[in-house]
């Protein structure tokens, strides 16, 4: 038995129940050890079948080649599946995936562990202090960091 990964894009026109049924159907075909990872709804850069977004689903499983062939045939004739791709994974790829998942889990745990005060500060824009010397006094002005320089107005002559 070999390790496989299948990336499916399910149509945005499907209801949640139909999406869940399709995912369950392919998960049972893949075997009892199959794991499903929903990547979420994403917009396409180029429309696929006149649709602008779809649900990305990643399916990890171990199976024989004939199972992949049957799943591929079924995905071809199923209306809700917009695109799919099967990848046969070797040991190096499995180790890299395990490392990637561990990093994601650590980052997720770090985000969840951060305080609400830190969360509120992240969205605010930073300010930059600029000093101007007027006579012997220094005036400090706080300006937004992302403020663009104002363009001088020009008058068009007739």
Number of helices: 4
Helix content: 25-40%
Main sheet strand line-up: 2-3-1-4
Radius of gyration (Å): 26 Å
CATH architectural grouping? 2-Layer Sandwich
Largest sheet: 4 strands, antiparallel
How would you sum up the global shape? globular
Order of helices and strands: EHEEHEHHEE
Domain tally: 1
* Text of the CATH class: Alpha Beta
Q: How much strand?
A: 35-45%
| Strand count | 6
Under CATH, the homologous superfamily reads: Ribosomal protein S6/Translation elongation factor EF1B
Enumerate the spans where pLDDT stays under 50 for 5 or more consecutive residues: 116-132
- Secondary structural class: alpha+beta
Mean pLDDT score, rounded? 79
CATH structural fold name:
Alpha-Beta Plaits
- Straight-line N-to-C gap: 80 Å
Q: Care to describe what's here?
A:
The chain has about 160 residues and is α+β, with helices and mostly antiparallel strands. The protein has a single domain, classed as Ribosomal protein S6/Translation elongation factor EF1B (Alpha-Beta Plaits). It is about 35% helix and about 40% strand. The chain has helices at about 15-30, 65-75, 90-115, 115-120, and strands at about 1-10, 35-50, 50-65, 80-90, 125-135, 135-145. The strands form two sheets. A four-stranded antiparallel beta sheet has the order 2-3-1-4. A two-stranded antiparallel sheet has the order 5-6. Strand 5 and strand 6 (about 135-145) form a beta hairpin. It is globular, with a radius of gyration of 26 Å. It starts with a strand and ends in a 14-residue tail after the last strand. The model is unreliable at about 115-130 (pLDDT under 50).
């Amino acid at each position: 038995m070999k390790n496989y990964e299948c990336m499916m894009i399910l149509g945005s026109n499907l209801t949640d129940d139909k999406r869940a049924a399709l995912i369950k159907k392919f998960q049972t075909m893949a075997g009892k050890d199959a794991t499903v990872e929903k990547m979420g709804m994403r917009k396409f850069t180029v429309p696929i079948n006149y649709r602008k977004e779809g649900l990305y689903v990643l399916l990890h499983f171990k199976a024989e080649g004939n199972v992949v062939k049957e799943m591929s045939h079924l995905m071809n004739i199923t209306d809700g599946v917009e695109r799919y791709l099967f990848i046969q994974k070797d040991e190096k790829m499995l180790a890299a995936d395990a490392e990637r998942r561990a990093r994601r889990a650590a980052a997720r745990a770090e985000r969840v562990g951060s305080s609400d005060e830190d969360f509120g500060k992240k969205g605010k824009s930073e300010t930059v202090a600029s000093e101007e010397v007027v006579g012997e006094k220094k005036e400090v002005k706080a300006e937004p960091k992302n403020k663009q320089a104002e363009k001088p107005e020009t008058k068009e002559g007739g």
